[in-house]
Write a structure and sequence with these properties.
Number of helices: 5
Distance between the termini: 54 Å
Order of helices and strands: HEHEHEHEEH
CATH architecture: 3-Layer(aba) Sandwich
Number of strands: 5
Shape: globular
CATH topology: Glutaredoxin
Oligomer: single chain
Length: 138
Amino acid sequence: MRFVVALLLVTAPWVFYGRGAETAYPPGADVATLTRDGSRVGPLEKLRVRGKFTVFDFYADWCAPCRAIDRRLRVIAGSRRDVAIRKLNVVSFESPLAEELGPDFEALPLLVVFDPAGKRTEIVGLDLERLDEALAAR
């Protein structure tokens, strides 16, 4: 019985959210994956795109709320050319990237948004309203 429950917990996100159901970002969208394996990337300030809102999307494949954020980012990327999206797969809370984020990093999804002037906003959890607010501030 424990095996069945464990199997459901591990596979449920794929069953309900369909990993293969994800679509590509729209053509022309400014989207790049900075790490797929949880490796370190360095200071975000140096990686932001000047003159644009830059959204650093820290996610993990196993994180269901992260997929909801990804769906919203796809819509944003399709309608706004002033937004750059940078994807970072944390993989696990023990990865080098997680260590780089520091001891306060303990929840996903995590978004770090820089406005064009360099103002930084951190959004922890599935807070789509706060994401919209961060991208509206100008």
